[in-house]
Amino acid sequence: MKKDLPENIVEDVAIAVVLEKESPEVKDWNVYLVNLKNEPIETVLVSSRGYGLKDGKEVKTSTLRHSIGNVDSREYALIEAIDEQVFGLTNEYWLSYYIGETIYDKKFIFLPESIVESNIIRIPVVNKPGVMIK
Predict the structure, then answer these.
(1) Which domains are seen in the chain, by residue range?
(2) Per residue in 88-124, pLDDT tens?
């Protein structure tokens, strides 16, 4: 039963939407997995999708699955590029990984319009501006 499963809490791992380059015409954004732990995480998998209302219509993006592999301690890995047009949607990233033989998973959700100038910080490890969920 579900109640018999151990509660494996995800800590010190984040998903960040990072501003890579900016010009007057366009901003380039990428999504990263940031391992803030002092140990590597292994067999990292991330699925991503977007959903919500755009111009009064229900919109869903494709679900993408990313096999990241291993991410060393205090390192980061690129998940995907992201277009500013989907910032008005809910953007969901479902992360799973192993430490030893223990599996961990967590859903990270960027709510509509949460990727805005007022929420931008300097992302640790990546050392670029962006919005991060831990």
Answers:
(1) 2-126 (2.60.40.10)
(2) 999 999 999 999 999 999 999 999 989 999 999 999 9
**R_g (Cα) of the chain, nearest Å:** 16
Angle at 134 between CA 43 and CA 105, to 5 degrees: 35
The 3-state DSSP class for residue 87 equals coil
Supply the pTM of this predicted model. Answer: 0.92
Nearest Cα to Cα of residue 95 among 122, 113, 116, 77:
77
Q: What is the mean pLDDT of residues 70-99?
A: 96
Single-letter residue type at 130: G
Cβ partners under 8 Å of residue 6, min gap 6: 102
Residues 6+ apart with CB under 8 A from 128: 18, 19, 20, 122
Question: What does the mean pLDDT of the chain come to?
Answer: 93
Q: What residues are paired with 2 via a beta bridge?
A: none
